[in-house]
From TrEMBL:
It comes from the Bacteria. This is Uncharacterized protein. The chain crosses the membrane at residues 137-157, 169-193, 205-226. Keywords: Membrane, Transmembrane, Transmembrane helix. The keyword Transmembrane applies.
Amino acid sequence: MPAPRRSGAERPGRYAPQPVSWAAYTETARRLGEILHGERARVDQQAARDRRLRTGADELAHRLAVQGQHLADLAGTLRLPQPQVGNVAPGPVPDPAEALRRGAVAADAADAAAAEAHARAGRPALLPGLPPVARNALLYAAAALLGSGVSMLLFLLSPGDLGRIPWQLVPWSLCGLPALAFFAGYLAIGLLGRPRLGGGGTRSARLGGAICFLGMPLLWLVFLAATRG
């Protein structure tokens, strides 16, 4: 009697699929959904980060362009060499966010240096803490003292008795040297007593004239009276 034939599920060597429960199927679907959601969130975060970096780079580029123009204008006003802006080799910073941060820090430092240069240009090189009138008076007085010293030295070196008035020095002592002292003080105020920015006010010409054309002859007369006994 022939043996009964086996069905396909009962044949040896063939894979028989196992039934999947509904709970296992839903768990697998939930895990796949979480993975997909996480991947989408990561992609969205990366896109947002790229947009922020692109915006930050554009803002920094605009700031550097404005800053470069400001530095060029400031250098021209201060009669200084033009700054070299750009053409800088990129540094080894792999993180774009860190590179932007360093760029912003460097731009802040450049702004601070420009502000310091502008502030220093608004102060005179000589005696910056004094008011303009007091500074001008000191410069005129220094020039007048120097001129008076020259006048007295010429008097001492002139031939003849010290008790005799050297009439050949009178025009120089009363007019020539005071005029030279006045113009020396006027020039010194223009070179050292006035800031490069802001003007710095007047040169106090009337005050300088009074110091040089009145003070120097008075000192010379006092010197003559002292030498004549």
